[in-house]
Protein backbone atom coordinates (compact mmCIF):
# COMPACT_ATOMS: atom_id res chain seq x y z
CA UNK A 1 0.00 0.00 0.00
CA UNK A 2 1.34 3.41 -0.95
CA UNK A 3 0.93 6.16 1.70
CA UNK A 4 1.34 9.87 0.93
CA UNK A 5 1.07 12.50 3.67
CA UNK A 6 0.10 15.85 2.16
CA UNK A 7 1.69 18.15 4.74
CA UNK A 8 1.87 21.32 2.67
CA UNK A 9 1.61 24.43 4.91
CA UNK A 10 -1.80 25.31 3.43
CA UNK A 11 -3.06 21.80 4.16
CA UNK A 12 -1.80 21.97 7.75
CA UNK A 13 -3.53 25.31 8.25
CA UNK A 14 -6.89 23.98 6.94
CA UNK A 15 -6.58 20.84 9.02
CA UNK A 16 -5.87 22.90 12.15
CA UNK A 17 -9.06 24.87 11.53
CA UNK A 18 -10.96 21.58 11.28
CA UNK A 19 -9.43 20.29 14.52
CA UNK A 20 -10.28 23.41 16.50
CA UNK A 21 -13.45 22.80 18.55
CA UNK A 22 -14.40 26.49 18.13
CA UNK A 23 -14.81 26.01 14.35
CA UNK A 24 -18.52 25.95 13.54
CA UNK A 25 -20.20 23.63 11.01
CA UNK A 26 -20.00 26.09 8.10
CA UNK A 27 -16.33 26.93 8.64
CA UNK A 28 -15.52 23.23 9.08
CA UNK A 29 -17.17 22.41 5.75
CA UNK A 30 -15.26 25.23 4.05
CA UNK A 31 -11.91 24.04 5.43
CA UNK A 32 -12.68 20.46 4.38
CA UNK A 33 -13.49 21.63 0.84
CA UNK A 34 -10.20 23.53 0.67
CA UNK A 35 -8.23 20.59 2.04
CA UNK A 36 -9.92 18.28 -0.45
CA UNK A 37 -8.60 20.43 -3.30
CA UNK A 38 -5.06 19.81 -2.08
CA UNK A 39 -5.59 16.08 -1.61
CA UNK A 40 -7.12 15.71 -5.09
CA UNK A 41 -4.35 17.79 -6.64
CA UNK A 42 -1.68 15.52 -5.15
CA UNK A 43 -3.52 12.27 -5.80
CA UNK A 44 -4.14 13.05 -9.47
CA UNK A 45 -0.50 13.88 -10.22
CA UNK A 46 0.14 10.64 -12.09
CA UNK A 47 -3.17 10.22 -13.93
CA UNK A 48 -2.63 9.35 -17.57
CA UNK A 49 -3.28 11.95 -20.25
CA UNK A 50 -4.47 11.54 -23.80
CA UNK A 51 -3.17 13.96 -26.41
CA UNK A 52 -5.41 15.87 -28.78
CA UNK A 53 -4.73 18.57 -31.31
CA UNK A 54 -6.26 21.91 -30.32
CA UNK A 55 -6.41 25.25 -32.04
CA UNK A 56 -5.58 28.37 -30.06
CA UNK A 57 -6.46 31.84 -31.40
CA UNK A 58 -2.87 31.86 -32.75
CA UNK A 59 -2.01 28.36 -33.99
CA UNK A 60 -2.55 24.65 -33.47
CA UNK A 61 -0.82 22.78 -30.67
CA UNK A 62 -0.98 19.60 -28.62
CA UNK A 63 -3.58 19.64 -25.87
CA UNK A 64 -4.27 17.12 -23.14
CA UNK A 65 -7.26 15.58 -21.37
CA UNK A 66 -7.54 12.84 -18.78
CA UNK A 67 -7.40 9.49 -20.57
CA UNK A 68 -9.69 7.79 -18.02
CA UNK A 69 -11.26 10.01 -15.34
CA UNK A 70 -11.59 8.02 -12.09
CA UNK A 71 -14.92 7.06 -10.52
CA UNK A 72 -15.45 9.20 -7.42
CA UNK A 73 -17.03 7.45 -4.41
CA UNK A 74 -17.77 9.48 -1.28
CA UNK A 75 -18.53 7.48 1.87
CA UNK A 76 -21.68 8.93 3.45
CA UNK A 77 -22.14 10.93 5.51
CA UNK A 78 -18.80 12.58 6.13
CA UNK A 79 -17.35 12.00 2.65
CA UNK A 80 -20.18 14.05 1.14
CA UNK A 81 -18.33 17.18 2.21
CA UNK A 82 -15.47 16.27 -0.13
CA UNK A 83 -17.58 15.14 -3.08
CA UNK A 84 -18.48 18.40 -4.79
CA UNK A 85 -14.91 19.72 -4.64
CA UNK A 86 -13.46 16.48 -6.04
CA UNK A 87 -16.10 16.47 -8.79
CA UNK A 88 -15.32 20.08 -9.64
CA UNK A 89 -11.69 19.14 -10.19
CA UNK A 90 -12.61 15.96 -12.10
CA UNK A 91 -15.70 17.18 -13.99
CA UNK A 92 -15.77 14.25 -16.43
CA UNK A 93 -15.83 11.69 -13.61
CA UNK A 94 -18.82 9.57 -12.71
CA UNK A 95 -19.83 9.40 -9.05
CA UNK A 96 -20.98 6.45 -6.98
CA UNK A 97 -22.09 6.47 -3.33
CA UNK A 98 -21.54 4.18 -0.35
CA UNK A 99 -23.36 4.73 2.95
CA UNK A 100 -21.73 3.36 6.09
CA UNK A 101 -22.34 4.12 9.75
CA UNK A 102 -20.00 2.88 12.41
CA UNK A 103 -21.75 1.13 15.29
CA UNK A 104 -20.44 3.14 18.23
CA UNK A 105 -20.49 0.10 20.55
CA UNK A 106 -18.81 -2.50 18.37
CA UNK A 107 -17.02 0.07 16.14
CA UNK A 108 -17.96 -2.09 13.16
CA UNK A 109 -19.33 -0.39 10.03
CA UNK A 110 -22.92 -1.05 9.01
CA UNK A 111 -23.69 -0.54 5.33
CA UNK A 112 -26.98 1.18 4.53
CA UNK A 113 -26.53 1.94 0.87
CA UNK A 114 -24.38 1.33 -2.18
CA UNK A 115 -25.02 3.00 -5.49
CA UNK A 116 -22.21 1.90 -7.79
CA UNK A 117 -21.76 0.80 -11.39
CA UNK A 118 -22.30 -2.98 -11.74
CA UNK A 119 -18.77 -3.53 -13.06
CA UNK A 120 -15.67 -1.66 -11.98
CA UNK A 121 -13.28 -3.75 -14.07
CA UNK A 122 -10.53 -1.49 -15.37
CA UNK A 123 -11.84 1.55 -13.44
CA UNK A 124 -9.67 3.62 -11.13
CA UNK A 125 -11.74 4.61 -8.08
CA UNK A 126 -11.18 7.60 -5.78
CA UNK A 127 -12.76 6.98 -2.37
CA UNK A 128 -13.48 10.05 -0.23
CA UNK A 129 -13.80 9.84 3.55
CA UNK A 130 -12.26 12.39 5.88
CA UNK A 131 -11.59 9.86 8.66
CA UNK A 132 -9.59 6.63 8.72
CA UNK A 133 -9.83 5.47 12.36
CA UNK A 134 -9.96 1.69 12.95
CA UNK A 135 -10.08 1.23 9.16
CA UNK A 136 -13.22 -0.90 9.35
CA UNK A 137 -15.29 1.49 7.22
CA UNK A 138 -12.73 1.89 4.47
CA UNK A 139 -11.99 -1.83 4.28
CA UNK A 140 -15.76 -2.44 3.95
CA UNK A 141 -16.10 0.23 1.25
CA UNK A 142 -13.05 -0.88 -0.73
CA UNK A 143 -14.13 -4.52 -0.54
CA UNK A 144 -17.45 -3.52 -2.15
CA UNK A 145 -15.37 -1.97 -4.94
CA UNK A 146 -13.00 -4.90 -5.48
CA UNK A 147 -15.99 -7.30 -5.41
CA UNK A 148 -17.13 -5.43 -8.54
CA UNK A 149 -13.73 -5.76 -10.17
CA UNK A 150 -11.85 -2.61 -9.15
CA UNK A 151 -8.10 -3.16 -9.11
CA UNK A 152 -6.91 0.38 -8.46
CA UNK A 153 -8.26 2.41 -5.54
CA UNK A 154 -7.07 5.76 -4.21
CA UNK A 155 -8.32 6.76 -0.76
CA UNK A 156 -8.39 10.44 0.18
CA UNK A 157 -8.79 11.30 3.86
CA UNK A 158 -8.10 14.26 6.08
CA UNK A 159 -6.83 12.22 9.01
CA UNK A 160 -5.55 8.69 9.49
CA UNK A 161 -4.74 6.69 12.61
CA UNK A 162 -1.81 4.25 12.53
CA UNK A 163 -4.14 1.33 13.41
CA UNK A 164 -6.39 2.11 10.45
CA UNK A 165 -3.46 2.34 8.06
CA UNK A 166 -2.19 -1.01 9.34
CA UNK A 167 -5.65 -2.53 8.85
CA UNK A 168 -5.74 -1.32 5.24
CA UNK A 169 -2.24 -2.64 4.64
CA UNK A 170 -3.15 -6.04 6.13
CA UNK A 171 -6.29 -6.20 3.95
CA UNK A 172 -4.13 -6.66 0.87
CA UNK A 173 -6.52 -4.41 -1.09
CA UNK A 174 -4.98 -2.53 -4.06
CA UNK A 175 -4.78 0.86 -2.37
CA UNK A 176 -3.01 4.18 -2.37
CA UNK A 177 -3.80 6.45 0.59
CA UNK A 178 -3.49 10.25 0.63
CA UNK A 179 -3.96 11.92 3.99
CA UNK A 180 -3.12 15.30 5.48
CA UNK A 181 -1.93 13.74 8.77
CA UNK A 182 -1.15 10.47 10.50
CA UNK A 183 -2.30 11.17 14.05
CA UNK A 184 -1.12 9.62 17.32
CA UNK A 185 -3.74 6.91 17.79
CA UNK A 186 -7.26 6.07 18.92
CA UNK A 187 -9.00 6.61 22.28
CA UNK A 188 -11.23 4.05 24.02
CA UNK A 189 -14.18 5.12 21.83
CA UNK A 190 -12.08 4.54 18.71
CA UNK A 191 -11.92 8.28 17.97
CA UNK A 192 -8.74 9.60 16.42
CA UNK A 193 -6.42 11.44 18.86
CA UNK A 194 -5.86 14.36 18.68
CA UNK A 195 -8.31 14.13 15.77
CA UNK A 196 -11.20 16.48 15.14
CA UNK A 197 -14.18 14.66 16.63
CA UNK A 198 -16.98 13.17 14.54
CA UNK A 199 -16.47 14.43 10.99
CA UNK A 200 -20.14 13.87 10.10
CA UNK A 201 -21.40 15.79 13.13
CA UNK A 202 -18.83 18.56 12.63
CA UNK A 203 -20.25 19.17 9.14
CA UNK A 204 -23.93 18.42 9.43
CA UNK A 205 -24.76 18.43 13.16
CA UNK A 206 -25.17 15.55 15.60
CA UNK A 207 -27.63 12.78 14.73
O1 LIG B 1 -12.18 3.80 10.46
P1 LIG B 1 -13.45 3.62 11.20
O2 LIG B 1 -13.21 3.19 12.63
O3 LIG B 1 -14.40 2.69 10.51
O4 LIG B 1 -14.15 5.03 11.36
C1 LIG B 1 -14.21 5.94 10.32
C2 LIG B 1 -15.61 6.17 9.88
O5 LIG B 1 -16.31 6.91 10.89
C3 LIG B 1 -16.91 8.05 10.29
O6 LIG B 1 -18.18 7.76 9.80
P2 LIG B 1 -19.42 7.48 10.79
O7 LIG B 1 -19.58 6.01 11.00
O8 LIG B 1 -19.28 8.33 12.00
O9 LIG B 1 -20.66 7.93 9.93
P3 LIG B 1 -21.09 9.42 9.53
O10 LIG B 1 -20.16 9.86 8.46
O11 LIG B 1 -22.49 9.25 9.07
O12 LIG B 1 -20.99 10.28 10.75
C4 LIG B 1 -15.97 8.38 9.17
O13 LIG B 1 -16.53 9.24 8.22
C5 LIG B 1 -15.60 7.04 8.63
O14 LIG B 1 -16.51 6.55 7.66
O1 LIG C 1 -12.28 10.27 15.20
C1 LIG C 1 -13.17 9.77 14.50
C2 LIG C 1 -13.31 8.38 14.29
C3 LIG C 1 -14.30 7.91 13.49
N1 LIG C 1 -15.14 8.77 12.90
C4 LIG C 1 -15.03 10.11 13.07
O2 LIG C 1 -15.81 10.88 12.51
N2 LIG C 1 -14.06 10.57 13.88
MG1 LIG D 1 -19.99 10.03 12.33
UniProtKB/TrEMBL annotation:
InterPro entries: PRTase-like, PRTase_dom, UPRT, UPRTase/APRTase
Keyword terms, alphabetized: Allosteric enzyme, Glycosyltransferase, GTP-binding, Nucleotide-binding, Transferase
GO MF annotation list: GTP binding; uracil phosphoribosyltransferase activity
Coiled-coil ranges from the UniProt annotation: none
Cofactor(s) required for function per UniProt: Mg(2+)
Any Pfam family matching the protein: UPRTase
Family: Belongs to the UPRTase family.
This protein's name: Uracil phosphoribosyltransferase
Source species of the chain: Geodermatophilus saharensis
Lineage: Bacteria, Bacillati, Actinomycetota, Actinomycetes, Geodermatophilales
